[in-house]
Write a structure and sequence with these properties.
There is one protein chain. By secondary structure, the chain is an all-alpha fold. It contains 4 helices and no strands. It has helices spanning 3-54, 60-77, 80-93, 102-120. Helix 1 packs antiparallel against helix 2 and helix 3 (80-93) runs antiparallel to helix 4. 15% of the residues are buried. The chain crosses the membrane at residues 6-25.
Length: 134
Amino acid sequence: MDSAILGALITATGSILVASLAFYLTKRNQLEMDRQQNKVNHYKVLLSSLSDLATDGMDKDEANRRFALASNTVALVAPQSVITALMEFHDEVKFSNPNKSVDKHDELLVKLLYKLEKSRRWKQQKNQLTRYFH
């Protein structure tokens, strides 16, 4: 085989491989970004429903329905650490808990927010206990 043809064949094959690899990596990154954006949207709905529960004048039945729906939806996209923190928070604030505590509520809410941040890969603070959210 002529060396010019062999060189052209190697160049063409290399170009196809590089283009294929670039496409694969770009598509993989795009899918990951879409997944992360979808997760953020579910987290926004969850936090909005939590806000509705805490707001005076809101229809509490509707707020509870939104919170239940948001919690169930988050369970589809969140890692186990977020689901566990969410369930611990839910157990503290549910109507049937006779031992509700403001301090425990705040502690579990901070823990939930920390787990949401961690799952989103946002820049993590060095000490989650320095955060206060009420």
